[in-house]
Specification:
By secondary structure, the chain is of the alpha/beta class. Helices cover 38% and strands 24% of the residues.
């Protein structure tokens, strides 16, 4: 009897083929592996998104969805600002602040640019310092330090209200609107407000007769008094010169006499200019003495 004997199959070789080996070696590269695993899917997704949003209507629809979602969050009641509180401002300045600040209530606090509001406040001449913040309870808090009027500066036909540093506050319509503020005049007088205030303090004994100060030649002051009298002060140490005149006035009633000008521009040679009546009287006395 014949027996069929099957030949033994060849043992499988576990070693990879040459091409398989090369492919495995290439895939071991970190850059290529990331490119295959992440890059190709990302490129496919990006291409799909670009193709989808190439249509203008789809872009507008997606934009509207995003905006609606954003507004639904920032316009929640706890994020809304409903009122503005102003501290430190007069009634006029309060009205100016409410007029210039570009805020329409109610508004989300995410739509308020505090830096822009602060810049708008500092552009107001009457504001010296300011701060803006959002307080709990939906309150936009505005704190200002207002410039305090110290002087009226006349320049030509214009009247300006200045603070003690010479900063402009507002224009004045008439001198009578600010009867308690001292008056200065002349080119550059607004740059010498500190010295002007010193002179007004020194002239306190005759304050009821002082009409104002005139800055002459942008270098020295004249004190203008009632009864058409004027005290011409020197360029240097004008306060001390004015105090000497006031001492003479207190001792001898100097300013009560018929004088028009007390000239102290030359400290070592003060000069008095008398009125017409006193001049005629002096002239007549001189002629009588000569005869």
């Amino acid at each position: 009897m014949w027996t069929l004997i099957k030949p033994k199959s060849a043992k499988h070789d576990p070693a990879p083929s040459r091409w398989s080996y090369r492919f495995m070696r290439i895939m071991l590269s970190p850059v290529l592996r990331r490119l295959v695993v992440y890059g190709i899917p990302a490129a496919i997704v990006t291409a799909g998104v670009v193709i989808y949003f190439a249509d203008l209507d789809r872009r507008d629809m997606a934009k509207g969805v995003v905006i609606d979602a954003y507004r639904s969050v920032i316009e929640r009641p706890e994020f809304m600002v409903n009122v503005m509180a102003i501290n430190g401002a007069s009634a006029a300045l309060d009205a100016d602040i409410r007029e210039i600040l570009p805020v329409d209530f109610p508004v989300s606090q995410f739509d308020i640019e505090l830096d822009v509001l602060h810049g708008a406040l500092m552009e107001l001449d009457a504001v010296k310092q300011a701060s803006v913040q959002i307080r709990t309870g939906g309150v936009l808090q505005v704190d200002v330090m207002e410039r305090q009027p110290a002087l009226i500066w006349r320049m030509g036909e214009n009247l300006d209200i200045l603070d003690a540093s010479g900063a402009f506050i507002r224009a004045a319509v008439a001198r009578t609107d600010y009867p308690n503020l001292p008056l200065i005049a002349g080119e550059g007088a607004n740059m010498q407000t500190a010295k002007a205030l010193e002179l007004f303090v020194a002239a306190e004994p005759i304050a009821d007769r002082v009409r104002g100060l005139v800055y002459v030649g942008e270098r020295r002051w004249d004190v203008v008094l009632t009864q058409d009298q004027r005290i011409l002060l020197p360029e240097h140490k004008p306060v001390q010169a004015l105090e000497r005149v006031l001492v003479l006035n207190q001792a001898q009633d100097l300013l009560e006499r018929d004088l028009r000008v007390v000239d102290l521009r030359l400290p070592n040679r003060p000069t008095l200019r008398v009125g017409q009546a006193s001049g005629d009287e002096i002239l007549q006395s001189s002629q009588t003495a000569v005869e």
